[in-house]
Amino acid sequence: IQMASLPPELVHSLQEIDRLRKEIDKKIQKIKQENANLAQADPASREKYWGKLRSLYLETITLSEKQSGLTYSCENRVEKIIEENFSQTAGKKRKKPEPTKGEVIGAESMVACFVNGNWILGKVKSYQPKKLEYKIEDADPDPDANPMITVPAKYVLSLNNPELPKGSRVLGLYPDSTCFYPAEVVSFHKKSKKDEKAYYLLRFVDDEYDGKTIAKKIYQENVVLEPFVE
Prior knowledge:
With 230 residues, the protein is of the alpha+beta class. Helix content is 32%, strand content 28%. It has two helices and twelve strands; from the N terminus they run H-H-E-E-E-E-E-E-E-E-E-E-E-E. The chain has helices at 8-40, 46-85; strands spanning 110-115, 118-128, 133-138, 148-152, 156-158, 169-173, 179-189, 199-204, 208-209, 212-213, 216-219, 223-225. The strands form two sheets. Strands 1, 2, 3, 4, 5, 6, 7, 8, 11 and 12 form a ten-stranded antiparallel β-sheet that branches. Helix 1 packs antiparallel against helix 2 (46-85). It is globular, with a radius of gyration of 21 Å.
């Protein structure tokens, strides 16, 4: 199918997807720069960089969700055009295209999701692109509750995250629980012969014992940058 033969609204959507991709790339570069600034900043000025980072992450998520929705819509539209123009395939039922890999969190991935005012551990079972929602299996459901919950995509966070610098505000999976709580990165430690997994030392908010806050060892796979929640 040539670009000129596509409906004008579809051409516009494809151009918008390309524009969003470029915007996302710019945001990612800014995030990398602000992370570098945060790592070198003195304690008094960290809040300024942290505020910029949170805004950038939120803007990037919003752009990604919009790009994902547009992409899925365009794929369906192109699929219909192909079916209409190539009659020899009319006898075969074509499957709806799945969302492109990398745009959504894959099935069976462990995630942090915001449910009833708390960040909890869950497993992705499916994604509904038209509604921008995930079907999540609660890692520790109440005995009388349905373990399957529906969560808006903006409240589901991937646990596949890069190394975060000292001073970063994060959500960490508290030891022996399935809930994430706010914390600050004290240090990051790469995997070694002694530790098979990379981990952080986190100082959890309001986690004092005998007047002192003791940093806790939390594996990297259980830590995510703390987002703004509307």
